[in-house]
Records
---
Amino acid sequence: MRGAPRRGQSLAETAIGLVAFVIILTFGIHFAETTLLAMKVTEAAAAPLWDATALKMHTLPTSFSEAKTSLGVAQGNAQGRYADFDGRSSVSRGSAVTEVFTAASGMSISCSMGGVYNFFAGGPPPYISNTYRDNGGAQCTASASAASIRMSLFKYTYCAIGRGGRQPCRGSMSMLLDDWGLAGPAESSECVVKTNGGGCNGNAPYSKSVENAFDAVGDRGTAHVRLVQFALQRLPPNLAQVTDFYLSYRGEESKFTETVNAGDNGDPDWHTTPFATPPQYEAAHGSRSNSYLGM
């Protein structure tokens, strides 16, 4: 005897399968959104560090507070751009973002100077202590709040570095700022030697920086003696006495040549690299054209 046909089994299986599929799809979308938003918090912490590298770091040889000021400016700009978890200045969605199953808000970026690395644990060497300062690097962190919506299951904190969850954020990104290089028109122009001593005219930051280093290693009456002794391993007879500081900084626009008092040898030209003798220096510079790094 045949039993009665089963009815509704396929429908029940489909319903159960759809429930499982919708749950998996919902959590998949939610976790994808949380991953993307968490990446934006990490990006927000890195942004001011990189942005600060394009800003003013110092005024040689007297002031290095500009690095901290520039970091603060970069932090403020990044805070404004990433408040909506986007990062583009051309897009503004307010101070929160709502996705399909996730909402995030409260983006907070915090930066500070120092505490990253100390180049001079025992203090800087005397020949640079009057010219350069170690700012200790910079560090930034970021955090934001997030919650699942339409299911009210999760509330947690995003951290730029480290595990978030419901714990306060402790990790940070760090970077060494300022390479002490000459920057901007005031520190990169030529400097014409002062014939009466006292450095050069036209680039006061560079001239004063070199003069500070010069004075730090000894008095002006003996520094040149030690330099000659180091370079030649001997002192030539009748070495002239240098009682002042002279500096020439000539560039491409002057063909790397400073014209000075001819003196006893009758040569008024003071060449800096690349100079004409040996000719390989001048030839190499001439062949570089306008290519970056001569390549």
---
Amino acid sequence: MLFGPAIVKKGLILGGKLVGGVFFPKILRPPDPAPLSLRLSVIYFWVAVLPTVIFAEPFGVLSWIVGGPATVLFLWAVWDCVQWHRRVKAAREKIGVKSVVGEGEGKGASKVDGIEIREGTEADREGLLSIWLRSVRETHDFLSEADIEELMPEVFACFLGELELWVAEEEGGGVMGFMGLNGNSLDALFLDPKYFRKGVGRAMVERARAMKGRLKVDVNEGNEGARLFYEAVGFEICGRSEVDGQGRAFPLLHMREVCEGDEGSG
């Protein structure tokens, strides 16, 4: 057989490095989470291409038949990765983003209820985008998958680049969620769904309050769970907008922290 075990193993290692973006130019490196085209390419490789190469004649008719769709999927995945990075770049240029990750007023990490909350770094960004995606799919029922896909480059560029970023970690080092601050405005707070209702969100709000004082936050009207959470940690509704900050038809509730002596929303 043309491809012995050693050659196949080296090929798999090289393929894994390529998929991981080790040898890819930055613009071709796959985002996290990977686009559908890349996931389909990997699945097709394992269920069709690799068995054909191992058990059939490598350059026979069957290999050519299997190789055609593999080539199409691969080119589709490369195209998706290129377009992703172009959309992120365009989003950054549109809003004039310069990364301020790790440049907040708060200094160093702290622990609240055993949860370590530290300043975010550039290395965190793509992993946090994956957390954002899982969290939004779990909580934002009013968004379609197309809406979420459209928002992802903007989130990557803005939430994870423009805001003062703080990351919550458990003791083993696993990332639980993150928040983005703009002065005393809590512009982003997203948790990995497996850490919902475990005190992580409350701990992050307390950390933000300790750094910035009285906080304010905008919540999507369709996200009832978020509204109830913020009311539980001391916020009240003080206004409403018909559209979100980008002019999309997703109404926002404006909330602020209630302090002793307040007489209502006002």
